[in-house]
Amino acid sequence: MASLFAKFKIVDILSVLGLLLGVGAILIGNMLEGGQLRSLVNFPALIIVFGGTFGATLLQFPPTIFFRSMKMVLWIFMPNGKDPEAQIKQIVRWSLDVRKDGLLRLEDEIENIDDPFIQKGLQLLVDGTDADAILNILELDMVVKENRDYQAARVFEAMGGYAPTIGILGAVMGLIHVMQNLANPELLGAGIATAFVATIYGVGSANLIFLPVANKLKIHVFAAAQLRDMISTGIIAIAKGENPRNIELKLSGFLHTNPKK
Q1: For a surface tag, which of 49, 89, 146, 221 has the fewest beta carbons within 10 Å of its beta carbon?
Q2: pTM of the model
């Protein structure tokens, strides 16, 4: 079912195709214009642009956020999503078990779940915690988790902002090298190459990699937040003793968040 947090495949094909198409279009276009691949390879420009970009990013973010972003980058190709429809069925099954055998029936479920958020919610249920208290506790978890992941996604957004500027800096440095060697024509080529290639690296990496990665991670962060919100709503409904059928109808509303519908 189409929804913002619909079940993703093991590998996100669109991300792979997007990266290959974006980079491939630049390389193929360069070849059609008569250029050569080696003309786009310049190690001084590579060091200036990517070294400067990562350095500025490290200065902006604390270590916990930066390393979190490096782990999250895998979501681009292998999304860390769950099937919301399967999760709804599981919550409905929990409500049926509670109606039949009581809250203590969920103790066995806690041991078989590897999601700390769900474990906490079920443990609060088993402990007989009031529904409002459960809501407050889970909401705090949701806000903290979403904010941390959103900040991690902003790491790539920052890289997308720094890379073009560092590319221009590399271009200026290349031109300075050219000006210093006007009397030595054999040295002019290296300076000019660094100047233009640094600009390509900066603008290209920002618009083909960093900014798309940042935006896609934000989509995954929002989808994960929606899923946790759905789980929280289901757990609170169980705590209130709502009818399993009503719980299923309520949670199915989370599956219809696609703006095209």
Answers
A1: 89
A2: 0.81
